[in-house]
Specification:
It contains 15 helices and 26 strands. By secondary structure, it is of the alpha/beta class. It has three domains: 228 residues, no CATH class; 190 residues, Rossmann fold; 114 residues, Rossmann fold, CATH 3.40.50.2000. The chain has a seven-stranded parallel β-sheet with strand order 16-15-14-17-18-19-20. A six-stranded parallel β-sheet has the order 23-22-21-24-25-26, sandwiched between helices. α13 crosses α15.
């Protein structure tokens, strides 16, 4: 006799019939009710989640491969298993384990139902591997048990599988099966700890983190010779069994293009890379809501949902009402709302993702990219590099207050850094960004705007500054050069450094044709995402003087200067 995953005793190698399965379900319900009644008022409490910084030391780690069954017919259920592991990781990751408190797998995670986002995967039932909602979670409970043993935690409840699944921890007696709600895994930490659950591209990683390092344990494997291998329809010869699934067609994975900023370079890239059946997720209907940022071609795009509009309108009002920190904080709020909606497009059969950088840290932080290959449509430097560059400039120029007016949340900075390190490719037209990623960079050509040949007369010493007037765009260096060389500056952006910033400089506001009479366009910026005005100038034949931060490579008509160096800027202007 053997004990099944659900605690029922079954004869060895007996193929269950329909009546056996009905009886099994009935007994399961009895056990569920019994467990619920027995623990009224005494069930383990649900543990809270915390920040990782307080637990820097790895007490134990268990790592297991995601893709255990490589047969083509099992592909869909393997995708389902990994999807379920992602959903479970979001609920368990960063769980705090106070000293002596009991961790309960089911109490912490809740029921693995379709309503809560779980899908069909393989589950061991009555000696057979069968499709079931939430299937595959035993890989997580196995890893939790393995890590708890390594860390020397007290095991309060653990049940072994009735059969050995090839390649699983059951083959070494280090497994722990779970079945809602009466077959549970429970353990207690001897000292405060934190649980980390991470789904990487090819592995499930469970770590127990502590405040101080300790020697890792190597518990002896348990004897497993009395357990037999689990049946599966791919290898079982009992084709007359009512559960037999027959031959399965091999499904094909899809790519999801989760887009945001409507750059023409990205639009052309998506058009070329997209295959039949791929998902193109557009967070909002740009035509309906008159949002140019989302004015992508509508044919074939899925609008994830317009339910995010309440948050977005709030963010939009905040951005219109203020500049600086409030504007950028509102941008992060908007991106988080859109990422939450965009995640709905990442169904289990999505095996690759092409994702907008603005949404990347949120989807990575929430575990939606685990078990998937992904590329990033990159529009700006990583947040960590932006902060480092601004911090260094602020230290050199403490009087320039706008250099330190905003910093991103440290968790988002870390999430973006980790996601970019794991990405398969970085797709961008920005030369400086592409140079950071070496062979992983897919460098796109900037889309040049259409422009008529220049017919206006050049006005000597007239230059244009795309702006806005703010320190990180090089306004201070340009002001110094303009005063020294008696230049007239055409201002195209708002004045964020004060109304009298340009005192002592001849200025004029840009008109309908902002390039009229301009001898050169100058942008000595520390940071620049989208050099559209510089591209307009090049299309009209107007020389450009800029820094590498503006994203343009050395080419005819472009002079690159060092940022924050007024002397180099004056020299380039004299040459122009």
């Amino acid at each position: 006799m053997a004990v099944s995953d659900s605690g029922l005793r079954l004869p060895e190698r007996v193929v269950p019939g329909r009546f056996d399965s009905l009886l099994f379900r009935a007994k399961t319900h009895v056990f569920q009710i019994e467990r619920m009644l027995r623990e009224i008022g005494s069930a383990p409490r649900r543990l809270s989640r915390g920040e990782t910084a307080a637990f820097p030391a790895v007490l134990a780690e268990s790592r297991s491969p995601l893709w255990g069954d490589t047969r083509a017919g099992e592909r869909a259920l393997q995708w389902g298993k990994v999807h379920n592991l992602r959903a479970a990781a979001r609920r368990l990751d960063r769980t705090m384990l106070p000293e002596g408190a009991v961790f309960s797998f089911w109490r912490q995670m809740g029921r693995a139902s379709a309503r809560r986002g779980f899908v069909a995967g393989r589950m061991l039932q009555e000696g057979c591997l069968v499709p079931a909602t939430g299937g595959g979670l035993c890989q997580l409970s196995n890893a939790l048990y393995d890590a708890a043993l390594q860390a020397g935690f007290a095991i309060m409840e653990r049940h072994a599988h009735s059969r050995i699944v090839p390649g699983s921890a059951a083959a070494f007696g280090r497994d722990a099966t779970v079945a809602w709600n009466y077959v549970d895994l429970r353990f207690a930490a001897p000292a405060p700890a934190m649980l980390r659950v991470i789904v990487e591209c090819n592995a499930l990683v469970v770590r127990l983190m502590g405040r101080e390092a300790q020697a890792l344990r190597s518990p002896a494997d348990a004897p497993v010779e009395t357990r037999q291998e689990a049946h599966s329809c791919g290898t079982c010869e009992k084709t007359q069994c009512f559960r037999h699934e027959g031959a399965r067609a091999a499904p094909v994975g899809r790519t999801a293009f989760v887009v945001d900023e409507n750059w023409p370079e990205f639009r052309a890239y998506v058009r070329t890379a997209r295959k039949h059946g791929d998902v193109l997720a557009l967070p909002l209907d740009g035509a309906r809501w008159r949002l140019g940022r989302y004015a992508w071609a509508r044919d074939g795009f899925e609008r994830v949902a317009d339910a995010a509009l309440t948050t977005l309108w709030h963010a939009g009002r905040t951005r219109r009402a203020a500049e600086g920190p409030a504007k950028r904080a509102a941008g992060l709020l908007r991106a988080e709302a859109l990422a939450r909606r965009a995640a709905q497009a990442l169904t289990p059969d999505v095996t690759e993702v092409v994702i907008a950088q603005s949404l990347l840290p949120f989807l990575w932080r929430d575990g939606h990219l685990g078990g998937r290959r992904f590329s990033v449509l990159m529009t700006r430097l990583p947040m960590g590099m932006i902060e480092a560059r601004l911090n260094a400039a602020a230290a050199r120029h403490p009087e320039r207050r706008t250099l330190a007016d905003f910093r991103a949340d440290a968790v988002l900075v870390a999430a973006e850094r980790a996601a970019l390190a794991a990405a398969d490719a970085i797709v961008t037209p920005h030369a400086e960004i592409a140079a950071l990623f070496g062979e992983r960079a897919v460098r796109l050509d900037w889309a040049m705007p259409r422009a008529a040949a220049r017919t206006d007369a050049v006005v000597p010493r007239r230059i244009a500054f795309p702006g806005p007037t703010i320190a990180r765009k090089g306004a201070y260096e340009l002001r110094e050069a303009a005063r020294a060389l008696d230049l007239e500056v055409v201002l195209c952006g708002s004045d964020l450094e004060g109304a009298d910033f340009w005192s002592g400089v001849r200025t004029r506001r840009a008109g309908e044709d902002w390039l009229e009479g301009v001898a050169a366009v100058v942008q000595p910026a520390l940071l620049e995402e989208s050099p559209r005005k510089l591209l307009q100038a090049l299309a009209r034949g107007v020389p450009v003087i800029a820094t590498a931060a503006c994203g343009l490579a050395e080419q005819e008509g472009v002079t690159l200067v060092v940022a924050e160096c007024a002397a180099a800027l004056k020299s380039a202007l004299n040459s122009a």
